[in-house]
Fold this sequence. Notes:
The chain has 8 helices and 12 strands. By secondary structure, the protein is α+β, with helices and mostly antiparallel strands. Strands 8-9-10-6-11 form a 5-stranded mixed β-sheet, with helices on one face. It has a 3-stranded antiparallel β-sheet with strand order 1-2-3, with no helix packed on it. Strands 4-5 form a two-stranded antiparallel ribbon.
Amino acid sequence: INRPANKRRIPGVLTLDEVAGVLAQMEGETALLARLLYGTGMRLMEGIRLRVKDVDFSRHVIIVREGKGNKDRVVMLPRSLVQEVEINGQVREMDTSGWHDYRSWGRDDHDRFFTHIVQSETGRIAKMLLSKRWSVVCSDEDAFITTDKPVSLHHMEREKFGFGTPGVMVTFPLGPKRMLAMDDMSHEPANQYYPLKDGSAGSFNLTTWRNGRRFMITGRPIFEVLGEIVSLTPEGPI
């Protein structure tokens, strides 16, 4: 006896006016969630599990974590949902007039925008860095890669972080033999010089390499540096 075949039915689809009518009857968080699901194509549980830090208002995108197939993906954030946003108890209107120009930005445009943000936040970032422990890792021989984008941020647990994230480490190669490290390890002595441990240069150079843009300079044999970096990657040596 054969199994009965599943019958395929044509799904019922609401018109734009019908969808607008349904959404108009909703209020509060239910209305926001419904508009979010409809405007982004997110699934119900994806919308319920959505975190504030996964919403990028500057790029008008949402990062969906662990979606179908346990995969991450990016969806567009409808401009109609971000006409205003509440920050520290104050409601501020969102200006989306430059959204179309932003979509056509290249790497240089993003770099200039990042530089502008850093310049405007210089005082606040300086206070954050001054509250950290400053130390210098030293090597008797050339060990560290120098690059055109030397400042690197590290975090042991989080994928997304910034200067103000608790536990973040900021490193800056002062030269091939010196690496400035700023961290939150206040229980350790500050303003100290620490000798480079054997094999630990690879972890610093790996982050610098990933963070670099145009060029990287090293005083050591390039195959030796690359070998240390490869040994730290999940794939391991090729």
